[in-house]
Amino acid sequence: MSDLDGSRRNFLRALTTTTVLSAAPVRLYSETEKGEKVKISEDRSDRGTDRSGSTPELYDGPASPLFEPVPFTGNASYSELAKWGVSQRMAEAAAAAPTGPGTAWGIPFEIPGRILLLRDKEIEISVSPFSARSLVFLHSSDSAELERDESGFHPAPFRGAGLLSEYAADYVVIYADGAEQRLNVRHRLHIGMFQQIWGENCIEAVAHHKPAPQRAHHEQAARNWGGSQTRVNVADRGRWINWLWAWPNPRPDVRITGFRFEPKGDTAIALGAISAGRTGSNPLRWGARAKALLKLQKTAEFDPELSDEGLLSQIQLDLGQVISAAPRPLYPQKEWSQSYNNKVPELSKTEILIEFCAHPEARFHFLDRKPLPVAALQQRTGRSRLRPVPPADRRVKLRVVEKERGRPVAVKLHVHGEPGEYLAPEDRHRIANDAWFEDYSVDFVHSGLHTCTYIPGETVIKLPAGKVYIEVSKGFEIRPLREVLSVKPDTEEFTLTVEKVLPWREKGWVSADTHVHFLTPHSARLEGAAEGVNIINLLASQWGELMTNVGDFDGRTTLGSRESGGDGEYLVRVGTENRQHVLGHISLLGYEGGMITPMTTGGPDESALGDPIEVLLTEWARQCKTQNGVVILPHFPNPRLENAAAIVHGEIDGVEMTSWGNLYGGINPYSLTDWYRYLNCGYFVAAVGGTDKMSAGTAVGTVRTYARIDNDRSFTYEAWKDAVRKGRTFVSYGPLLDFNVDGKAPGERIRLSRSGGTVDVSWQAASVTVPMTRVELIVNGEVRESTAVGSEKAEGHWSVKAERSSWMALLVRGHYPDKPEIIAAHSTPVMVDVDGSEYYAAADALTILEQIEGALAYLDTLGTRSDDAARKRMRMILESAHRRVHNRMHQLGHFHEHTPAADHAEHRGG
Asked: What distances in angstroms separate CA 28 from CA 83, 138, 320, one per listed residue?
């Protein structure tokens, strides 16, 4: 076994020392032949660790002082099993069987060099007399070859591979008064095979390593992805499994002096150790989950790392297990109702919220002080180091209804108790996982600290007595709720009412997230409805050799539409995100027919190793439009290369402002600046909002697209696509807006004569989430007008001169009270065309040209080559875009130096 690191080794040594100090009241004694009382195991200084300081072969945590090993010497060593007639599999696996001192389920054992191998003869042993309330046997059996009849079936009685209830042996306990107690040992009841078969579990015995929590996959160096999502390791697999069977001694006051073991079947049994205990009930049966608050020493820092055994370094249990531990969340309890939605709690530096399950007589073991009985938790005061958290044992129905119609509505929900512990509905994760492509549930974990879930309007949740703190939200048009509720013994149901206060949907605006991954379509629809997002675009894609959501794509179904049996208000459509790691990404939404492939190209990290570049973003875009789709450049502008050519060719409908889960970050000025340079040169593309959600760390619709459906059309996915194509959009983190220039909406054009003119800009803005601070008019990428606002609703207008062709858009700033100001909303522009005036900015045009030249250079140098025809085809597309920009620059009198990679002969001389 590998050496322990320093902290774990020190903890083991501290545990063994404190166990000696705390064991005095419960020592188990035996007698010598002279009648002298002696301890069964005199030297406890090395209990739980060997003298080299390395991990014991049998170890799953600290040892309970309520048990003592019963020493004996057997008749065989594990290395000798083959000559005893056991199966070849058992003989080979015996090399992995643990030996020496150690603990299993918090019970100390001493496995001797020579164990008891029970094959076909009785064996009787004498031990130093001792008394005990229970005995725990550590043993294992060989596997049996099942007979088959001539038809290949197993004849009756068929007991399965585990030989359910077949007589294995009698263990006879011999008392000092000459009486005997015969224990009938049966397969799968009291003993199991040395290798566990799934589904052939033992009924009254457990595998020798107690269950333990395990780190999520992203926190591990190398573990099974699927299994790690369970967050628990049953530890009943491996090359060799011993089984622990606890027997309650009916004569606890009479000393035991020996044992006789009588094999009854054809299957060999390996008895490795016996331990004697004084627990009042079965030591292998733990209680239900509970929680407590641990107060750290002033100089201590919390260490969240789990060892390979699933153990924390600072607090462990012997007859039980610590499930989880994390710094206590400090929510603004006194100001809860006045605080804001999705506020991340502070973390305590002195208190740790732990969850555990344990036997009633278990003890907590600490790195820096003596053990504490679990039972003492109930008598601890507020000043104690370990304090109980009230159990969440009251089953309550929670309903959230809309004020207008009184019916349940899908919402995002957060509930916590007085100590700050998250309280999940019965059918939701207690410990949500917010890592990439892990445990993609209907949960949201804001900044890794504030856990929420999504419910369809009703749920059942177990709550503790006393105050609970509830947060409910549903998008940007409904006012979020934060309430403090009191749970009483007779509480059975809570009903909360949400109210829509901003009627943007009634004005024809529908919201959408253009970029979501990994959810199932039905989970996406629930989350969309709960977040007030009318459309979720769920994108299938490829990541190296990994394909995601490809089975959900059919090129025709819009889940939630009236045609598919839904209510037509909350929709999910599966499209694809096609990607090349250098040239760029492109989202193909709502297209019909077959999937546009390949979804990725050009090798890792997007495509598989060795994949050549077979297709350009521009070609994907054209194919999408041919199939009646909408084309979006996701997480604009990066990867920042070929998207320039696609925009120049007019194949892009929108550029996506992305949050990557940052609720407080707002629209990135980097993203806006790159978008502005295309607008400055007359390349119109709409602004859209998409989250690129790939984990529970991002909520759908954190940043979203609002698109206005034409007045003469009802809301459908097709109507939404048309609105995006026309640019009738704005992007938002919370504030909602209405904006027009001389009555023209975003995406529309105004035509003025050569002399230009004055246009009237009018606007409205409102927010019930992010408080607004300022509304600004952006003209050709610069702030032309700015007005401070400080309420939920604001409106205004400006008269603006347009002397040359100009694009005009509305920008809204805002921030939460304790956060920096952000760009919280931005409209697509209105284009004001002045006759004889070009949309053109020389510096912006040059960077667009250089970006296209970069795509050509990559294709010519590092890009993995496909066939010559494909390469020529792609080069022609890029060169065509390059010529368009280049010729326009020269026509407008902008001469420039070419980069070396694009110093093409055809450009020289003008």
From this structure: 37, 19, 21
pLDDT (tens digit, 9 = 90+) per residue, 556-598? 999 999 999 999 999 999 999 999 999 999 999 999 999 999 9
Query: Is the separation of the CB atoms in 576 and 596 below 8 Å?
Result: yes
| pLDDT tens profile 821-868 | 999 999 999 999 999 999 999 999 999 999 999 999 999 988 889 999
Residue 318's contacts (CB-CB under 8 Å, 6 or more residues apart) are 61, 62, 63, 64, 103, 106, 362, 363, 365, 371
Closest CA to 209 of 227, 184, 232: 232
SS3 40: coil
- pLDDT above 80 for 138: yes
Report the C-alpha gap between 413 and 400 in whole angstroms: 10
Token pair, residue 345, equals 């709690």
Hey, do 394-498 and 509-834 end up sharing a CATH topology, with the first three levels equal? no
Q: How far apart are the first and last CA of the chain?
A: 74
34-57 burial, b at 16+ Cβ within 10 Å, e below that, comes to: eeeeeebbeebeebbbeeeeebbe
Q: Where do we find the tokens 């039972």?
A: 375
Measured distance CA(699)–CA(413) in Å, rounded: 12
Unique residue bearing structure tokens 């992305």: 658
Which strand (E) or helix (H) includes residue 757? strand 757-766
What one-letter code names the amino acid at 768? V
Partnered with residue 797 across adjacent β-strands are 762
- CATH 2.160.20.10 matches 509-834: no
Fold of 394-498: Immunoglobulin-like (2.60.40)
C-alpha distances in angstroms, 71 versus 80, 130, 173, 272, 275? 21, 11, 15, 11, 9
396 forms bridges with which residues in the sheet? 461
Rounded distance, CA 316 to CA 295, Å? 14
Closest to 805 measured CA to CA, from 846, 848, 772, 756: 756
CB 48 within 8 A of CB 62: yes
Instruction: Specify whether the CB–CB gap between 575 and 549 falls below 8 A.
Output: no
Q: What confidence score (pLDDT) does residue 224 get?
A: 74
Cα–Cα dist 769/791, whole Å: 11
Beta strands across the sheet bearing 736-741? 736-741, 757-766, 793-802
CA distances from 609 to 153, 394, 574, 869 (A): 48, 54, 26, 22
Q: Residue 683 CB: number of other CB atoms within 10 A? A: 19
Q: Name the nearest CA neighbour of 547 among 620, 584, 586, 599.
A: 599
User: Structure tokens of 270?
Assistant: 């390996």
From the list 653, 646, 689, 697, the residue with the least C-alpha distance to 671 is: 689
Side chain identity, residue 96:
A
Rounded CA separation 610/37 (Å): 75
> In 3D, which of 635, 633, 654, 653 has the Cα closest to residue 643?
633
Nearest to 845 by CA among 877, 882, 879: 882
Distances in Å between the Cα of 334 and the Cα atoms of 57, 373, 416 are: 51, 34, 14
Q: How many residues would you count in the chain?
A: 910
Residue 1 pLDDT greater than 90, yes or no: no
Inter-CA distances, 847 with 428, 498, 653, 843, 863, Å: 49, 49, 21, 7, 22
Q: How far is 740 from 61, CA to CA, in rounded Å?
A: 68
Structural domain boundaries of the chain? Answer: 6-277, 292-389, 394-498, 509-834, 842-907
In sequence order, the 6+-apart residues with CB closer than 8 A to the CB of 689 are 512, 513, 514, 656, 657, 658, 703, 704, 705, 731, 732
Please give the full DSSP string across 204-259, using - where no structure is assigned. Answer: SEEESS--EE---GGGSSS--HHHHTT-EE----SS---EEEEEE-S-TTSPEEEE
Q: Tokens in use for 62? A: 């600290």
Question: Half-sphere exposure of residue 195, counting CA atoms within 13 Å on the CB side?
Answer: 15
Question: Which residues on neighbouring strands pair with residue 834, listed in sequence order?
Answer: 752
Q: In sequence order, which ranges of 649-795 are alpha helices (DSSP H)?
A: 669-680, 717-726
Question: Which residue type is seen at 345?
Answer: P
